[in-house]
Design goal:
With about 180 residues, this protein is of the alpha/beta class. About 25% of the residues lie in helices and about 30% in strands.
Length: about 180
Amino acid sequence: MRLLGVKPGLDAADIGAGSGYYTVRLARRVGPTGHVYAEDVIPQYLDRLARRVAGEGLADRVTLVRGEPHDPRLARGSLDLALLVHMYHEVAQPYGLLWNLLPALLPGARVAVIDARKETGSHGTPPDLLRCELAAVGYRRTGFYDLQESTYLAVFEPGRPAERPASPDAIRPCAAARG
């Protein structure tokens, strides 16, 4: 959170929120002037998360969003930060997700991915594959941090419109395959 500058007033998304570990922490950090969108594709996770944020008194700071594998379904111009923690390797349609995330990002917004330095089949994402997939959609890496053992944080920003593919059909998939 410190590396990402999460502070009061920030509007963030916890994409692939699951149990809400990061949702709750983000909501406390952004305070009453910020907001957190907890997105997941699994309705049961969102049901449990709704009870958790209500029980922790954070329901006024958190909006639950049921996304789709190719679309996080976040409101246009709603985010300063999109956080994807230990879930990018699970994304079935990374290019679609990244393309459909773009409209939700405010100017200067960042996309932060925390994952393990492993093959996707082993519950991780090789950093070069992550960089390639985000670059294919028009994001550029602005930061990279080694965290613990084989875990890293990679930070991206959307490139200028001229650096992005004209449409989802124009995205050129990376040569390196997901394992």
